[in-house]
Design goal:
One of its GO terms (biological process) is DNA integration. The protein is α+β, with helices and mostly antiparallel strands and about 425 residues long. The protein has 17 helices and eight strands. It has a five-stranded mixed sheet, covered by helices on one side. It has a three-stranded antiparallel sheet with strand order 6-7-8. The longest helix is centred in the last third of the chain and has 20 residues. The protein starts with a strand and ends in a 15-residue tail after the last helix.
Length: about 425
């Protein structure tokens, strides 16, 4: 049916018994009035573009309230606009649909620096970083208070430089300044891949030449004082600190050690199982260490005795070795450091200096650089890692046992020329 539509005429129409009634407005704009058998009324428009016939729904029909639908006048105006654009080669409904989609996508995008960085932490850091909490705290403490509210569209390189100047000059930070810079570069690169940013405002910001690499190594006397201070502390704090000294492994690797990681060396994945048959090993899984690969640490006799004396607060195989409740790893390292400083009289050191001290003692003991680096699980050059697949189990076991022997001798006040009896002859 084709007819010059009026509100009065539309009011006389009755729903069809089934299907749908359609009446085309004879205004020439392709406007179509539709009524379903349930009485629902709506507008559509037919138009042709590039030789193709198209039809699009405009909205529901209302006689008087444009807030809840389209009146006859507004539908006729919109249909005329669509057909006029189509004659000029523009598909107006398609264009408007794209604009709406873009607007919806833009509304979902982070609008400020803080909202972007929070999304980066949630979507990336929590999935890929073992220490994502450090990244989150860094942003919360140092970035959000300064540039967090800044709209992304206004973010410039000068804002990043001003932030780093503030951290360095006003707060007196050193190494932390470059860590903030590195994390911002990584976050903004992640944002570029998702088209939240067009360019990385931190990419051209230069690294600050303010970090002094630590070279603190504990002397024999300092190490003895720290060990003896640990002797006075209960489980888990005292044994945890001794394990750092005995193994030279990273702080969190020791702190999060679980009982199922301690196993007979022949069952630890060593290919040279026959050589390893007599000892114990600590296997640090790849997801829990910096190298992202399983790292096998031979257990010296002194370390084996220490483990044998530890209580087990849970029967679960994956229970933490160092724990206060049998469920979560020991978390009192900050307080522990304060106590050890006070009790030992040794200051100006950090836990990581123990690792450097162990490495230095390997050199004193004549352990080769190649073996020492593998005990500490430092990264090897790519070509060497590809062509040299030897696991160095006997060499690592010997290095750690020699270190345990030297430590025992130091604690007993012996001479470097005396070779003490090894505890735990199985290793």
């Amino acid at each position: 049916m084709r007819k010059r539509l009026t509100d009065r005429f539309l009011a006389t129409l009755k729903p069809p018994p089934n299907g749908r009634l359609e009446v085309t407005d004879d205004s020439g704009a392709g406007l179509v009035f539709r009524m379903s058998n349930d009485g629902a009324c709506s507008w559509a428009v037919r138009y042709s573009i590039a030789g193709k016939q198209k039809r699009v729904t405009l909205g529901r029909y209302v006689q008087a309230d444009p807030k809840i639908g389209m009146t006859l006048a507004s539908a006729r105006k919109k249909a005329a606009e669509i057909t006029a654009n189509a004659k000029e080669g523009t598909d107006l409904p398609d264009k408007e649909a794209r604009q709406r989609a873009e607007a919806e996508q833009a509304a979902k995008r982070p609008q400020t620096v803080e909202s972007l960085l929070r999304r980066y932490v949630d979507a990336y850091c929590k999935q890929n970083q073992r220490k994502w909490l450090e990244t989150e705290r860094m942003f919360e403490n140092h970035v959000y208070p300064v540039i967090g509210r800044l709209p992304l569209s206004d973010l410039r390189r000068a804002d990043i430089v001003a932030l780093l100047d503030h951290l360095q000059n006003d707060k007196g930070f050193t190494a932390q300044v470059n860590r903030v810079r590195s994390n911002l570069i990584a976050a903004f690169n992640w944002a570029i891949e998702r088209e939240y940013l067009d360019a990385n405002p931190a990419a051209a910001v230069k690294r600050r030449k303010i970090e002094k690499p630590r070279n603190r190594t504990l002397s024999d006397a300092e190490l003895i004082a720290i060990w003896k201070a640990a002797d006075k502390l209960p489980y888990p704090s005292g044994p945890y600190l001794k394990t750092l000294i005995l193994t030279g492994q990273r702080r969190d690797e020791v702190r999060c050690m679980t009982w199922d990681e301690i196993r007979h060396a022949a069952l630890a994945g060593c290919r040279d199982g026959a050589q390893a048959a007599g000892g114990m090993a600590w296997v640090i899984p790849g997801e829990r260490n910096k190298s992202k690969r399983d790292h096998i640490v031979p257990v010296s006799g002194l370390f084996e005795n220490l483990l044998a004396d530890l209580p087990r607060l849970s029967d679960a195989p994956t229970a933490p070795v160092f724990t206060s409740n049998g469920q979560k790893p020991y978390a009192g390292t900050r307080r522990l450091k304060e106590i050890i400083d006070r009790e030992s009289g040794v200051t100006g050191w950090v836990f990581h200096d123990i690792r450097r001290t162990v490495r230095t003692n390997f050199a004193i003991l004549g352990v080769s650089r190649e073996v020492a680096e593998r005990v500490l699980n430092h990264a090897t050059p790519s070509l060497e890692g590809t062509y040299n697949t030897h696991e160095y189990w006997p060499e690592k076991r010997d290095a750690l046992q020699r270190w345990a022997d030297r430590l025992s001798m130091m604690l007993e006040g012996g001479s470097d020329n005396v070779v003490p009896l090894r505890s735990g002859a199985s290793v």
